[in-house]
TrEMBL record, chain A:
Protein's name according to its UniProt entry: DUF1667 domain-containing protein
Coiled-coil stretches: none
Species: Caldicellulosiruptor naganoensis
InterPro entries in the record: CPE0013-like_sf, DUF1667
Superkingdom, taxonomy of origin: Bacteria
From TrEMBL, chain B:
InterPro entries recorded: FAD/NAD-bd_sf, FAD/NAD-binding_dom, Metab_Enz_Cyan_OpOx_G3PDH
One Pfam family, short name: Pyr_redox_2
Protein's UniProt name: NAD(P)/FAD-dependent oxidoreductase
Every FAD/NAD(P)-binding domain range: 4-303
Keyword annotations: Oxidoreductase
Keyword DNA repair: no
Amino acid sequence: MEKITCILCPKGCSIEKKEEGNEIKYIGYGCTRGLEYAKDEFTQPKRILTTTIHVKDGELEFLPVRTNKPIPKKLLFDAMAILRKVEVTAPVEVGSVVVKNILDTGADVIATRKVRKKSFF
Amino acid sequence: MHEYSVIVIGGGPAGLAAALKSFENLDDKRILIIERDSFLGGILNQCIHPGFGLHYFKEELTGPEYAQRFIELVEKNGIEYLTDTHVMDITPEKEVTIVNKHGLKKLKAKAIVLAMGARERTRGAVQIPGTRPAGIFTAGQAQRFINIEGYKIGKKAVIVGSGDIGLIMARRLTLEGIEVKAVVEIMPYSTGLRRNIVQCLEDFGIPLLLSHKVVKIHGNERVEGVTISVVDSDFKEIPGTQRFIECDTVLFSVGLIPENELSKKAGVVIDERTGGPFVDNTFSTTANGIFACGNVLHIHDLVDNVTLEAETAGKYAALYCQNPELFQKGKLTNIIASDGIRYVVPQHLNRNFLEPTILRFRVNNVYHDKVILLINSGKKLLKIKKQYLSPGEMESIALSEKILSQMDFSEDIILKLEDDK
Ligand SMILES: Cc1cc2nc3c(=O)[nH]c(=O)nc-3n(C[C@H](O)[C@H](O)[C@H](O)COP(=O)(O)OP(=O)(O)OC[C@H]3O[C@@H](n4cnc5c(N)ncnc54)[C@H](O)[C@@H]3O)c2cc1C
């Protein structure tokens, strides 16, 4: 019997996976989204990655970014290694794509903050 | 002196939501937001992690994205705001003294919304002996350095305190290639949200040491390590359990304190339990025409709740400009936190506004199998079963129209915990 904690909302339901013969059962989820989460979490755990990347000519030096969907947990550090080397140029809008389909995960890395061009006056 | 209807102090999520609701409800639209930082958005700008907006927007956003939605509405509506501007003083007459690069200025408001947020407790607050080397930060300070300024703050870290900010920084440091040796928590439980314990510690195998405390910080120029110890139920060190952990960085995540220095100057009375003003269900403080919301009022774990509360404060601040007499203080019913409940906000109900109201509260310990009871003139008006309650998670109950219709407002409203038999 394995156990995970659902993280979709602050409730934090504890969900168990039970194998009875060929049947797999999940116990303890509080909603259908929780059930879907549990199925994924037991087979292929995924996480949204957030970090910052360099931005040139911006009113800020660093741009916060995130993957637009969760990516496999085991790829988090590989994705970080890529993003450390990425640089974009201001202006940047929220939601604009900075890396497409990172590590073939199907997820794009997008900007989470608007950064205007630096003004020199 | 330039006059506004509503002046909002603080441009974080609380200030932005309050300003937007005042704007909706105010005919003259004379509103000003004042923010000391260079950008609107408050602490959300440095909270680049996901987990915001699940309740309010029904989707998961990062802090800057959540803030951006409100900033855009503020700009679209042409609501006036000043950044890089510090509010130095407010008076009970609602005069506001500001300072910025243009100098000092006085403004006048009919109503003020306090939305200054909170500040972090520091190493001093937990009194740890040892030297004062470089490498000691509060968690929020480290968050700002890393997420906004882009510094690498160390190589090996120990985090003191397991509140959400500490947990989130444990993950952030790990992703940045900084080894987090442990999160050290003096209580037998974490005060952080469960999803953060899972996603920030368990995901990366970072040990959470409960009932442990840092008893000494070592190092002269730079931190060289900490000594930790197991503690007993009185938080005293248990002899023989001391252990040295080598590290060059220590992050303190030991709680937030509502930022109320200004509020006090305006004669706002502070509730010792929340650290924020006493308010009624219109979020009116004890000072006429001064409202409060967000972390300045009490510390929130979820920004969604901040927004909802701020919308109410903003709506009533606008109404105050038109009908100040409705806000007289003679018609308040007390809402009292008792047995097991540490505090409740609002602390009063204004009988001129008997509208459905959400009571937000925290318990004073971890509890299993309890009922939350709402009692008025000896009657139990509401009973909610709870399998698990923790001080780390804000709870709420609704005073619905139905419940309000059963109340005797000459008597206190009492909120307490009881065993679930
Ligand atoms: C590190 C951290 C992580 C968090 N993580 C999450 C999360 O994952 N999910 C979630 O839902 N919530 C999270 N929260 C909680 C949520 O972000 C806060 O509850 C919320 O931002 C509080 O909003 P506020 O507007 O009251 O305060 P703030 O955002 O702090 O804004 C207050 C503003 O007032 C300004 N100010 C203060 N004094 C003055 C003055 N005298 N003059 C002018 N301006 C002034 C400050 O500069 C600041 O911009 C987190 C909070 C922190 C601190």
